[in-house]
Amino acid sequence: MTSPTAPTAPTTTAPPARTVVVVSGNPRPGSRTLRAAEAAAHRIAAHLGIDDVATIDLATFAGQILAAEHPEADAAKERLAGATVAVVATPVYKAAYTGLLKAFLDLYGNDGLAGVVAVPLVVSGNPAHALAGEVHLRPVLVELGAVVPARSLTVTESQLADLDGVIEAWLSRAGESLRRATGPGVVVPARVPAGAAAGVPAGAAAGVEEVAR
């Protein structure tokens, strides 16, 4: 007599780990821009109940980004694309973001950051450039498929001494939007695998030489 076949247990897939990833486009390693972004990332992670915070400092492999082969940049690109929240940081350079950050983001194909919730962060020496994140960096992140649910976090040089206060003030306005954008039930669009890099403007390489904050 043949024994009845036991029912097959349904296959379950564990959800991907939630992470907050910092990417700093300052061409100076260990910059104040990087420190501000890391402080913001840890506070955002605590607000959202996320334990994993990682850092990508583009200055540490800047010379590789425009090379024919760029394994470190490719690894960083995948890490950022897999983030729950990406804190994309830059000093204000010529009223916009650095060429180094532009060159890195140009490595993504269409929708390369789909499903990522992005927080643009800019460090500015001049309060008149406070909208650089909104005017210049936000549109690029949206074009790459990221969701940008809150206004950019802008820190002027004079505010770096009170960085915690600046972050808390921003989070009091942006925290609920971030929570909704990353909470349970949010449908994450499928990410298109990164294809060939988009053309890097001739001026992008200059970002490696910029003297920034």
Strand content: 5-15%
Helix and strand content put the structural class at: alpha/beta
| Separate helix tally | 6
Could you give the order of the helices and strands?
EHEHHEHEHEH
The main β sheet shows up as: 5 strands, parallel
User: In which order are the strands of the major sheet placed?
Assistant: 2-1-3-4-5
Overview of the structural elements:
- With 213 residues, the protein is an alpha/beta fold.
- The protein is 33% helix and 15% strand.
- It has six helices and five strands; from the N terminus they run E-H-E-H-H-E-H-E-H-E-H.
- A five-stranded parallel sheet has the order 2-1-3-4-5, with helices on both faces.
- Helix 1 packs across helix 6.
- The chain is globular, with a radius of gyration of 19 Å.
- The chain starts with 18 loop residues before the first strand and ends in a 31-residue tail after the last helix.
- The C terminus is likely disordered.
Task: Please render the helix and strand layout as text.
Blueprint: E1 19-24, H1 32-48, E2 52-57, H2 62-65, H3 71-81, E3 85-91, H4 99-105, E4 117-124, H5 132-143, E5 153-156, H6 163-182
Parallel strand pairs: 1-2, 1-3, 3-4, 4-5
How would you briefly describe this protein structure?
The chain has 213 residues and is α/β, with parallel strands linked by helices. The protein contains six helices and five strands.
Task: Quickly list its features.
single chain, 213 residues, alpha/beta, five-stranded parallel beta sheet, 6 helices, 5 strands, 33% helix, 15% strand, globular, disordered C terminus
